[in-house]
Write a structure and sequence with these properties.
- The complex is a heterodimer of chains A (369) and B (383).
- Chain A is an alpha+beta fold and 369 residues long.
- Chain A has helices spanning 14-30, 34-41, 46-54, 70-83, 90-103, 109-113, 137-140, 226-261, 273-297, 305-329, 341-351, 358-368, and strands spanning 119-121, 142-143, 153-160, 167-174, 177-184, 190-194, 204-210, 219-223, 263-264, 267-268.
- In chain B, helix 3 runs parallel beside helix 6 (233-267) and helix 7 runs antiparallel to helix 8 (312-337).
- Chain B has a four-stranded mixed beta sheet with strand order 1-4-5-8.
- With 383 residues, chain B is an alpha+beta fold.
- The chains are: A alpha+beta (369), B alpha+beta (383).
């Protein structure tokens, strides 16, 4: 439905178009009508996840994706997931978890790629440093003693798919330095409290680590390669931006469809300039955010942090403002549960808080000035 | 030979050429500049670009171009934006009218006019808007009546940039008053140096007078100077305007980053040691994001032009985003100046800010762009 408001970056290889079609078909199969699925399942969709894994789409995270145009191509694919309000950690897995596990040669990579295990990560806020955007890894690191015992209590709220995850990927500050670890969600010392997520398609949890003891098998890396982690965050953020654009495109398509049909005063309400200009502004916001998102995705993690921060802000702001415009032009139906725009609106609002609130990204720009 | 010149080499040699040919006092000129100086610089820069082989790089060789690719054109635009180069005075006609002439004009017209336009031996203006035909351009009423061997033009054109300097005007006129309004319009080439053409400067709100009014009273256009079919001018004009709207924005959009740097410097309090005002700083962040986004939109326009064409949607988005965010940036600069507003040092900036009100109006108002976007969305026409 959102096809009219999708756009493909110039210069992507033909394989990308094929991948987009395949993904689109797969998402249509599993979510032909997203509303009931969203309302009833209110959480991750294991069947759909298996299908994605079966067709090897999770492996996109393991390489440079050059066959589909690299991170730009991947970002464009993420738009399909955003439009469909896909209930699963696609961006997290392909953008962050798989790249990290692959870089660390982790034995847990295979079950993740097979869809047998779902992994979510505890992620940091951006640090005030440009041109290369870095992240406050120390701020999220568990303090771990030499014997593997985690000191004190560490609480992380708003962890996407925290309740559905089999494993948590996290960073630990050990006496020898920062290391990446992976901890089963059912381990003693790990407490997962499902949150009443604003966005039911991205269920979140508060994860508490208290009295946890890490085992030798939990370590994913020796000393953590922060450049590698920053690169993974860079890719992940690009995918989040792609998801936001896709959701916004879908919402515009729905709003346009509605105002073309809905009649008041004897004419389609979409013929009124007040209505059409509101939607035109929505398209402006979408295309400006999309231009910035493609620009950022074409950059490199070590150099183009400014573009990525701007893209994050523009995509997140556009998604919310577009949903609000769409609700407005739907009139009274816009505030009904049945109309369903609110599912995208919920996603847009919740997405602004992850991996850090948009205000944190603005603060990076303040510091850059 | 097409595409045989390596892009990196092109960039490097153009960069060197710019350093040798663009005086520092010609850089970062704004609409706040005195009319005569700006017009002189823009014409002279056009001449130099042509002489150096850097204007119309994609044009066919027979009309003075080098038949290079759009990718080379991209390099030329990017490098000029990076140093704050002025726009050649014939920029509008080169971008909008020349492609029309190449596809719809006779070979005689192409041979006669394209090269002098590119060389900047002859200055061109555009005769579209009228007192009664602004956003509703198709309502234009300047009449062209058949006369021996051609047409006699009577009427008035408005907002004509550099009308006083122009040697020629590509003009839209009504050739059939009975037909539906869009079907009675023809595009012609008008010689501005003839009896029956009277040009008067039009002082704009900033005090400068690059616009003018053209009064036509029996001015003659020979039959040979009709471009495209008689009564077929509307479609020509619209297609050219929509496809080229985007490209005209590219250089201005890229140049915004330089203007942002100026505003940031003022806001930093470097001169006074006072540091940033936190409230101003937040607005600067908004402008930084808008400038960065404009740069990205410009890159996307360039990418699309290289690979197949700019959509009318992106062209309209670019126009609206550039004009609105540019106005905001210039206004922020004025606010930061505070009580230094009336210092002669900043007169040009203030005038540029005032003139920027025109940017959401010319080349299709913001409202017209939004109507275009709505049409593109398939929304029904209405009011």
């Amino acid at each position: 439905m959102a096809g009219d408001y999708f756009s493909t970056p110039a210069g992507l290889p033909e394989e990308h178009a094929l991948a987009t079609l395949a993904i689109h078909d797969l998402l249509s199969q599993v979510q032909e009508n997203p509303e009931p699925a969203i309302t009833e399942s209110a959480g991750a969709m294991p069947e759909a996840w298996k299908l994605l894994a079966r067709d090897s789409w999770l492996e996109l995270g393991a390489g440079d994706c050059s066959d589909i145009g690299g991170t730009v191509g991947l970002t464009r694919l993420a738009e399909e997931f955003g439009a469909a309000l896909f209930c699963g950690p696609f961006a997290m897995t392909v953008g962050f978890v798989v790249p990290v596990l692959a870089a660390c040669n982790s034995s847990d990579l295979a079950p993740v790629l097979r869809g047998d295990k779902v992994v979510t990560a505890i992620l940091p806020s951006p640090q005030k440093s440009l041109p290369s955007l870095s992240w406050d890894w120390n701020g999220i690191a568990l303090q771990v003693q030499r014997d593997g015992l985690v000191q004190g209590t560490a609480t992380f709220a708003n962890v996407p798919f925290g309740g559905e995850a089999d494993l948590f990927l996290l960073l630990c500050a050990t006496p020898s330095g920062l290391r990446v670890a992976q901890v089963p969600s059912d381990r003693a010392g790990v407490r997962v409290v499902q949150e009443p997520s604003l966005d039911p398609t991205t269920p979140t949890a508060t994860v508490v680590f208290e009295g946890l003891r890490l085992l030798d098998a939990d370590w994913v890396s020796e000393l953590a390669d922060l450049d590698m982690l920053n690169s993974a965050m860079w890719r992940y953020l690009n995918l989040l931006n792609g998801e936001a654009l896709g959701g916004a495109a879908e919402v515009i398509a729905r709003a346009v469809g509605y105002v073309r049909e809905r009649r008041q005063f004897g004419v389609a309400v979409g013929s009124f300039q007040a209505v059409k200009h509101r939607l035109a502004k929505a398209v402006e916001a979408l295309e400006v955010a999309r231009s910035q998102t493609y620009e950022a995705a074409q950059g490199s993690p070590g150099q183009d942090g400014l573009d990525l921060v701007c893209a994050r802000i523009l995509a997140a702001d556009a998604y919310v403002s577009i949903c609000e415009a769409a609700i407005q032009v739907h009139g009274g139906f816009g505030v009904s549960w049945e109309q369903a725009i609110h599912f995208w609106y919920r996603r847009a609002l919740q997405a602004r808080t992850h991996p850090a609130p948009i205000a944190h990204f603005r603060r990076v720009l303040h510091d850059h000035l | 030979m097409r595409n045989s010149v390596d892009l990196a080499e092109t960039r490097s040699s153009f960069r060197t050429w710019i350093e040798e040919n663009l005086p520092s006092e010609w850089r970062d000129l704004s609409h706040g500049e005195a009319d005569d100086k700006l017009a002189y610089v823009r014409r002279e820069w056009g001449r130099r670009l042509y002489a150096g082989g850097w204007l119309g790089v994609c044009w066919p060789v027979e009309y003075g171009g080098r038949a290079l690719s759009m990718a080379h054109y991209r390099v030329v635009i990017e490098e000029q934006a990076a140093v704050g180069a002025p726009e050649p005075i014939n920029n509008n006609s080169i971008a909008i009218f020349a492609p029309l002439l190449m596809t719809h004009g006779s070979e005689e017209l192409r041979q006669r006019y394209l090269l002098p336009m590119l060389m900047h031996d002859e200055v061109w203006c555009q005769g579209f808007s009228e007192p009664g035909a602004g956003s509703d351009l198709a309502a234009l009423s300047t009449r062209a009546k058949p006369d021996t061997g051609g047409w006699r033009l009577t009427g008035q054109k408005l907002w004509t940039t550099y009308g006083e300097l122009a040697d020629y005007c590509y003009i839209l006129v009504r050739t059939d008053s009975e037909a539906p309004k869009r079907d009675g319009i023809t595009m012609m080439i008008l010689d501005m140096r003839q009896p029956g053409v009277d040009v008067k400067p039009l002082r704009n709100l900033s005090g400068s007078a690059e616009f003018s009014e053209i009064f036509l009273d029996g001015a003659f256009v020979p039959d040979s100077h009709v471009v495209g079919p008689v009564n077929g001018g509307w479609r020509l004009a619209i297609s050219a305007l929509s496809s080229e709207r985007g490209m005209n924005i590219v250089q201005r959009g890229l140049a915004m980053s330089r203007e942002f740097d100026i505003v940031r410097k003022w806001a930093s309090g470097e001169n006074t040691g006072s540091g940033f005002d936190p409230l101003i700083k937040d607005r600067l962040v908004d402008s930084l994001i808008a400038c960065r986004a404009m740069r990205s939109v410009a890159h996307r326009l360039l990418d699309d032009s290289v690979t197949g064409g700019i959509s009318s949607r992106l062209a309209s988005v670019a126009k609206v985003h550039w004009s609105e965010s540019h106005q905001e940036l210039l206004r922020l600069g004025v606010e930061i100046l505070g009580n230094q507003l009336n210092s002669p040092t900043y007169t040009e900036w203030v005038r540029a800010f005032l003139f920027s009100r025109a940017e959401t109006i010319y080349a299709g108002t913001t409202e017209i762009q939004r109507n275009n976007l709505a049409r593109d969305m398939g929304l029904p026409s209405g009011r």
